[in-house]
Write a structure and sequence with these properties.
Chain B: It holds the Pfam family BPD_transp_1. Chain B: Keywords: Cell membrane, Membrane, Sugar transport, Transmembrane, Transmembrane helix, Transport. Chain B: This is Sugar ABC transporter permease. The complex is a heterodimer. In chain A, 75% of the residues lie in helices and 0% in strands. By secondary structure, chain A is mainly α. Chain A folds into 2 domains: 57 residues; 171 residues, MetI-like (MetI-like fold). Chain B is mostly helical. Helices cover 72% and strands 0% of the residues of chain B. Chain B has 17 helices and no strands. In chain B, α1 packs antiparallel against α4, α11 packs antiparallel against α14 and α15 packs antiparallel against α16. The longest helix of chain B has 39 residues. Chain B is flat. The chains are: A mainly alpha, B mainly alpha.
């Protein structure tokens, strides 16, 4: 077998395998998009390419009198954006202190963060529920946001600390010589240089509430306060299949912006994570 | 610490003439007095005021909290045991903070006393203020994050630890009934009562199979596809990569719910469309334990491989081309190049992340719960056929109100996770670097 034919075989096999992989990846997504245009509520009889497609399910979702979907959308956005802002502030401060200062309790603090990062905070969901109940934060978005921010801190702090460690300390020192205070150095010298990692942390914090289901389900009680995840789950769980096409439309509407955002920033995700994995 | 009572005179001649350090430390048993002794009046007054303020504002919190923590209430219907437990933990945390301030107070007095012993002059009020700013800045910076962590992470952990030693369940449910301390009874029950033991080991077994099966499959697929796409003469890399990354981009809970529709036995497209066209009978994906497990592992591979794929692609692109060229010159086959260049490089660079994938799947609640609620139900067990530890805990808490047992199982689970995590991070480079500082 000549070099050329072996190359052709190798490439053909590669393309075929990749085609198969792409079909498996895309099929469920196309299927749900197709379902969302199917007339009727039930899943049975729906097809990927409906003969008479309809936008009825999308109209239903945007009808605020019939569905809470827009409410859920805004709730999710509100929670994600607040989580992002608070997490970035808390993480920047903490990571900066751990990276630039040597103080009593520093090493134990870092170790604590490391261990906490491993325990998913919903493992203690009874406690979170009882605490929220006790403090009156049950069924409020504030309670949920605080839990999300707290959950982001340990891991993101390690990520950001790893990055800040690579910014030369000579910069702060020369600024200090020029009479800059602690907070000024933090805000004007170091943080502007750390924008890439701030973006990664912000994105993680923004996406995390969308990935969560369990905490939101436990803490939020009334339907108009639901997040996207809980709302869509309730939609399919109530009577499975009976509202599936509506659910499909709802999924498409939320998945599109998230996926778009994600693909745009994908490069940062990967670099942030590999940096975190090998460095911090 | 230099804390020998002043009455015991030691016959050995002290190395220093004065004993200001010891005296100051002893005096600061009443906070502030050590500082007065060191003639740092401003600081002393601050410590004294802090102490008085602490006791006057937290006295009832502490008193009530510790009483509640020890008794968990005495009058059914009036005392709410679980709230008492919460208050007790808050009292515990407040007391810890108090002790910390107290320790700082003694340490400060001792330190400044020792300085005087050595004949050094002490800082003026002005210098103290600047010192406080300099040394206090890192603490100021970490305090918002740390405070939040205490309430949303550390507090819950303490709560669960304590709860696992109580009999809190449906029959001991406040406010009507009281909860009591029962020692390690929950742990004994899990391992000695037939129902619990059988369920626990059943669930644990599946959790382990699930963790290793699903994770290994997703890692293998991800690495394989990344290498496939990265072939030099393959066209259309960018578009292929975008397609393959899609499952990561779509929120997982949506994908899982879509899959649970597709795998539905009566109207799902997998049974009615794909398998029917291949002439295969319907498969009970949701109601047969074995098939549910297969479906879950397949779904998780779909969800999880893009992450590994992206990671590996990053590593592959950083491998210098010269390595392969040199290998080609030496007459290495594709397989040899893969085995001695590609694979070691990929594994070395992504190992820490791969391990976090295992811990992630170990606690991957969403996919188990959203697919079919951990079902199907099994006879002689109180967990479903595909329940992993975390989803079983959720069920015990949310549907059968077995709070005490659920807490005990959470403790067992956390033990596993923390052990693995610590073992892993002890080995990573970054933490070893930290150690030398």
């Amino acid at each position: 077998m000549s070099v050329k034919t072996s190359k052709i075989i190798r490439l053909t096999v590669s393309y075929l395998l990749l085609l198969l992989a792409i079909i498996i990846v895309v099929y469920p997504l196309l299927w749900v998009i197709g379902s969302s245009f199917n007339p009727g509520q039930s899943l049975s009889g729906s097809s990927m390419f409906p003969e008479n497609p309809t936008l009825a399910h999308y109209q239903y979702l945007f009808d605020t009198e019939k569905s809470n979907y827009l409410n859920w959308y805004f709730n999710s956005m509100k929670i994600s954006i607040s989580t992002m802002i608070l997490a970035v502030i808390a993480v920047s401060c903490t990571a900066y202190a751990f990276s630039r200062y040597r103080f009593i309790g520093r090493k134990n603090g870092l170790l604590t963060f490391l261990v906490l990062q491993m325990i998913p905070n919903f493992a203690a969901l009874i406690a979170i529920f009882v605490l929220a109940n006790r403090t009156g934060l049950l069924d409020t978005h504030l309670g949920l946001i605080l839990v999300y921010v707290g959950g982001q801190i340990p891991m993101s702090t390690w990520l950001m600390k790893g990055y800040l460690d690579t910014i030369p300390k000579e910069l702060d020192e020369s600024a200090k010589m020029d009479g800059a205070g602690h907070f000024l150095i933090f805000r004007k010298i170091v943080m502007p240089l750390a924008t890439p990692i701030v973006a990664v942390v912000a994105l993680f914090a923004f996406i995390a509430p969308f990935g969560d289901f369990i905490l939101a389900r436990i803490l939020l009680r009334s339907e108009e306060k639901f997040t996207m995840g809980v709302g869509l789950y309730e939609m399919v769980a109530k009577q499975f299949g009976n509202e599936f096409t509506t659910f499909a439309a709802g999924s498409v509407l939320i998945a599109l912006p998230i996926a778009g955002l994600f693909l745009m920033f994908q490069k940062y995700f990967v670099s942030g994570l590999t940096a975190g994995g090998t460095k911090g | 610490m230099d804390s020998i009572p002043s009455t015991t005179k030691t016959p050995i001649i002290p190395p220093l003439k004065t004993k200001h350090g010891r005296n100051a430390a002893l005096l600061s048993i009443i906070p502030g007095f050590g500082q007065f002794y060191n003639k740092q009046f401003m600081k002393g007054i601050i410590f004294l005021i802090l102490t008085v303020a602490f006791f006057s504002s937290f006295y009832s919190t502490l008193n009530w909290g510790f009483w509640g923590l020890f008794t968990l209430g005495t009058i059914p219907g009036v005392d709410h045991s679980v709230f008492l437990l919460v208050d007790g933990i808050i009292a515990l945390l407040v007391a810890l903070i108090g002790l910390l301030i107290y320790a700082v107070n003694i340490y400060d007095a001792l330190n400044n006393g020792r300085k005087r012993d050595r004949g050094l002059s002490l800082n003026s009020v002005r210098e103290q203020y600047h010192n406080l700013l300099d040394n206090g800045f890192p603490y100021l910076m970490i305090s918002p994050g740390f405070l939040l962590l205490i309430f949303v992470v550390i507090f819950p952990i303490l709560f669960v630890i304590l709860l696992s030693f109580t009999n809190y369940d449906l029959y001991h449910s406040p406010p009507a009934k009281l909860v009591d301390w029962v020692g390690i009874q929950n742990y004994i029950d899990i391992f000695s009562l037939d129902l619990w033991r059988k369920t626990f080991f059943g669930v644990l077994g599946w959790t382990i199979v699930w963790t290793f099966g699903a994770t290994t499959l997703q890692v293998a697929i991800g690495v394989f596809l990344a290498i496939l796409v990265n072939q030099k003469d393959l066209k259309g890399k960018a578009i292929i990569r975008t397609f393959l990354i899609l499952p990561w981009a779509v929120p997982a809970f949506i994908s899982i719910l879509i899959f649970s529709g597709m795998f539905n036995e009566t109207f799902g497209v997998i049974n009615n469309g794909i398998l029917a066209s291949l002439g295969i009978d319907t498969i009970p994906w949701m109601t047969e334990e074995m098939w549910s497990r297969v479906a879950l592992i397949l779904i998780q591979s779909w969800l999880g491989f893009p992450f590994i794929f992206a990671m590996t692609t990053g590593v592959l692109q950083s491998i210098p081309e010269e390595l392969y060229e040199a290998a080609t010159v030496d007459g290495a086959s594709i397989w040899q190049k893969f085995r001695s260049i590609t694979l070691p490089m990929v594994l070395f660079a992504t190992a820490p992340i791969m391990i976090t994938q295992y811990t992630f799947n170990f606690n991957n609640f969403n996919v188990i719960f959203l697919f079919n609620g951990g079902g199907p139900a099994l006879p002689g067990q109180n967990a479903g056929g595909t329940d992993i530890l975390i989803s079983w805990i959720y069920k015990l808490t949310m549907t059968s109100a077995q709070y005490g047992k659920a807490a005990a199982i959470t403790m067992l689970l956390s033990l596993v996770v923390v052990t693995v995590a610590l073992w892993q991070f002890k080995r990573t480079k970054s933490f070893q670097e930290e150690d030398t500082m």
